[in-house]
Amino acid sequence: MDQADKISQRYDWGFLGLVALLTGIGLMTLYSSVYLSEISLFYKQLSFVALGLVIAIFMGLLDYRFLERLAWPFYFLTLFLLLMVEFFGRSAAGSQRWLSLGAINLQPSELAKLAVVLVLAKFFSHKSAPPNGYGLRDLIPVFLIVAVPMIMVFMQPDLGTAMMIGLTAASVIFLCHLKMKSLVILMISFLTAAPIVYSVVLKEYQRDRVRTFLDPQRDPLGEGYHSIQSMIAVGSGQVFGKGYLQGTQSKLEFLPKHHTDFIFSAFGEEWGFIGALVVLALFTLMVFLGVDIARKSRDKFGSVLAVGCLSLIVWHVIVNIGMEIGVLPVVGVTLPFFSYGGSNLVTNMLAVGVLLSVSYRRHIF
Question: Which of 94, 160, 302, 349 is most buried, by CB atoms within 10 Å?
Answer without folding.
Answer: 302
